[in-house]
Design brief:
By secondary structure, the protein is an alpha/beta fold. The strands form 3 sheets. It has a 5-stranded mixed barrel. It has a two-stranded antiparallel sheet with strand order 2-3. Bound molecules: uridine 5'-triphosphate (UTP). Uridine 5'-triphosphate binds next to α5.
Length: 289
Amino acid sequence: MKIRKAVIPAAGFGTRFLPATKAVPKEMLPIIDKPTIQYIVEEAVAAGIEDLLIITSRGKDALVNHFDKAFELESVLEHDGKEEMLAAARGVSDKINVHFIRQQEQKGLGHAVLYAKSFIGNEPFAVMLGDDVVVSDKPCIGQLMEQYDNCGTTVLGVQKVGMEHVSKYGIVDCEKVDGRLYELRGMVEKPKREDAPSDIAVLGRYVITPAIFNCLEKTPKGAGGEIQLTDALVMLAQKEKMYAYNFEGKRYDIGSKQGFLQATVDFALARPDLKDEFSDYIKSIVNTI
Ligand code: UTP
């Protein structure tokens, strides 16, 4: 079955970015001039996703406003013939159907994904975390969708992170099948280095079968007292085959300050309108560090 729908859980508190995230959702913090969430929605559009559900929470209405039509602004820009700015203001809103639902209490990523149950119905779907941005030639979620077309079951987006970082991620126990594809044996959320089965981490992109909802309904609170998507996936892996795919591309954890800074610098250096002046600046300060 074709993957048509995606879910972006974006209801978290974003405490690592306080005080900025007190009134501004972390997904609205811009990498240069575009909110983080828009890069993710553009990835979904590029992969051919038709319907998108963004899970929000109280105080995150800016996300809803961002994907709405800015009627007055667009009229003024149109009247003034400012085509480039008009296109920037319109963004991706007319390329994909964006829906919203509020998670009433932030009880974890698994709990947030469960809010998508009636939107998804009985079809496989994509999950894209609201604070992971991936730069790649082929859209990251599109790579996983392609794998799903071949294997017809859940595919997790993974990359090696190095043993020193395993305690920050869901880590998979898996066996290489072919090229970049692994068959999953198990998975553990944020293991200690000595308990980690590998350094292959799940990094914010998933294609999941609808059987996950039944698992999520039975998943008790796990690490951090939250309902963890990883725990539900472990349950699902006992019922269905599951794969992990080592996707191509550079992934940035925008939810962390280091990831956010790295993305800002890399994105600026990749932008033709900013590159020259900005790289001159970087070169000028390099010796002072
Ligand atoms: P994180 O733990 O990275 O996000 O969750 P957070 O809780 O917003 O960040 P900090 O740690 O307080 O800074 C991973 C993803 O799951 C979503 C987040 O929005 C993020 O995209 N999430 C998390 C929810 O949608 N609901 C939750 O209850 C928890």
